[in-house]
Structure formats: structure tokens, C-alpha cells
Amino acid sequence: MLNLEQMKQLAGESAIKYIEDGMIVGVGTGSTVKYFIEKLATRKNDIKGAIPSSEQTATLLKQYNIPILDLNSSGIIDIYVDGADEINHYLEMIKGGGAALTREKIIAACARKFICIADESKYVVKLGTFPLPVEVIPMARSYVAREILKLDGAPDFRTGVVTDNGNVILDIHNLDITQPMDLEAKINNIVGVVTNGLFAKRGADVLLLAKKDGSLDVINGETYVK
Ligand code: 5RP
């Protein structure tokens, strides 16, 4: 039986088989991605370069001498590998536990293929047990919190956290997420919100889900009809 860390390792390392020579690779953020980066280091001379989704990931890439590219000059990203805080069977996700959601969403939008790497504890029937992170311009914090209350969510200011973009995070509890795509758009439409951690409009294409019994489920988003 695998423990949590071993499941993260299995999921993270398994993503390396999707990396082809000459690719531009988007690299997510978090404890599962760390294992992917270790493997990516063994292919650093084969890829065109990597685009980090956070300063934390940029630091790791530099430690492994993996070439970093600038998204504004790189063009389309061939593949994006990242974790999730929750993911459902449509491969819609909640992300942002590590406060990197905005850059993650930008990279996901630019990527041809999004591979989500996760342990089985992240796979849920319905999104929303994990509080939904929302990145907010600091001066709009109270206004956004009041608007979220109108959606029956309970916002909680994440103290001591400033995002890589200089903003703050509200974690929204108690949301009834029956229509992830609608809610994603609704929250993004509140003035002062930079983005929210629902990845429904652009979900993952493939989920590599590591299981306690040591197996890896490969779940293809195209299998499901929305
Ligand atoms: C960071 C994220 C991460 O992908 C998410 O928090 C999962 O992280 P971990 O692999 O450490 O559980 O969205 O903003």
C-alpha cells in the first residue's frame, strides 16, 4: 500500500511519459509537481524549455538547470502538467491551494494539453469541500467578500499570504458547486477579482490518478460528455 507522499510521487513521475523532444512545457506548482520537476530535469536537454506557474516553481526549475522561457515570446505551450486540490470526473478542478491559481490558469489557457497529476484523495464526486481560492486586488477585498456572501459562500481571508502578483486570497467555504462553469464565470465577473480557482471552462485533458494500491488510473476527459 502506498502512503500519500508515495502516491504524489507516482502521479508526478508518471507525467514524464507525455513529454516529447522539442516541447514547451508548462509546469504547475505544489508538492505533486515537485516529483514531475525531478523527472523533467532528466529531459532538460530534450525540451525547448519550461514555463513556471509560480516563483516557487521557477526557483525549482533553476535549481535543476531546466531552461525557463517567457510566455510572451514562447507562443503556444505544448503541454501543461499540474496538480489539483479537487478534481471531478469531468476533469473540472479546484486549484489555488498554493495561491498560484492565476498564473496556473493563464498557462492552462495557453496549453494544447493539460495533464493533471493527483493522488486519489483529490478525486471527488462534487467540487466544493475544499474551499475555493479567489485571488483579489487588495483594495477590493471587503467588497468582493460582500459579493461572495450574496452567492451564499463564506469568504475567509488567507492571512499572511501575498500572491506572486501582489494580491490577496479569499478562500470561499460552503459553496454549492453544482454548475462549476457558471460559478467560475460569475465569480470572475465580480469587480476586483483577478481570478478564481475553478478550472471548469478549461479543465484538464488527462488525469493521472495515483491509487493507494500502487496502480495509476489514466482518465481521459474526452471520455465524458458534458
Ligand atoms: C497551487 C495548486 C496546486 O496544484 C494544488 O494546491 C495541489 O497541490 P499539491 O500537489 O501540493 O497537493 O493549485 O496553487
Describe this protein's structure.
The structure is a single chain. The chain has helices spanning 4-14, 33-40, 55-63, 71-74, 101-110, 141-150, 180-188, and strands at residues 24-27, 49-52, 77-82, 86-87, 93-94, 111-119, 132-136, 154-157, 168-173, 193-196, 198-199, 206-210, 216-220. With 226 residues, the chain is an alpha/beta fold. The strands form 3 sheets. It has a 6-stranded mixed sheet with strand order 2-1-3-6-12-13, with helices on both faces. Strands 8-9-7-10 form a 4-stranded antiparallel sheet. Helix 1 (4-14) packs across helix 2 (33-40). The longest helix is centred in the N-terminal third of the chain and has 11 residues, at 4-14. The termini are far apart. The relative contact order is 0.18. The model has no long low-confidence stretch (mean pLDDT 97). The structure holds ribulose-5-phosphate. Ribulose-5-phosphate binds at residues 28-32, 82-85, 95-101, 104.
List the strand order in the largest sheet: 2-1-3-6-12-13
| Ends apart, CA distance between termini | 34 Å
Report the principal-axis shape. globular
Number of helices: 7
Rg (C-alpha, Å)? 17 Å
Q: Uncertain spans, ≥5 residues at pLDDT below 50?
A: none
What kind of sheet is the major sheet? Answer: 6 strands, mixed
Q: Determine the mean pLDDT.
A: 97
Give me the strand/helix succession. Answer: HEHEHHEEEHEEHEEHEEEE
Q: Enumerate the distinct ligands.
A: ribulose-5-phosphate
Share of β-strand residues:
25-35%
Could you estimate the helical fraction of the residues in percent?
25-40%
Helices and strands: which structural class? alpha/beta
